[in-house]
Amino acid sequence: MNRADLSRRRFIYAGGLILSTALLPPLASAQTNSPAIEQHLDAFLQLSQKLTGYDTLNRELGARYLGAFLELFPDEAPNFAHDQGIQKKILHSWYTGTVGPNEAGQVRVIAYKDAFMYRPTADGLPTPTYCFRGELWFKALPPGITKEPDFPITF
Length: 155
Prior knowledge:
49% helix
């Protein structure tokens, strides 16, 4: 009986995995290939180039940012070429990797590692994560340190 339960679980997990891998990529591409996004994407990217000062921008990220703006700011987003308020939000989104919040407090996370705020220090610092060197790396002594300090560390 225990063996049958385990095989049912495996079957359900496998079915869920297959279903998610089959459905998620088409759903993601459908969002970035909508007619409204395709219609405005080139103008959005040109404005984004002027606002950010970067000549080359990732077209897929641009489509995702634009889709999030059209979803979260449906009244402002179509006027992005003339609306200074939405232009500030566009600039903010490229640097932070997020769009929003709108009046309802909704935020869409579009990029993490590719957010522009990490570019100035990319030559010397990696994009911050929770652990740079794997799980519990802080339990070992730092490189170049051979013994624990003799005095208590206080902050």
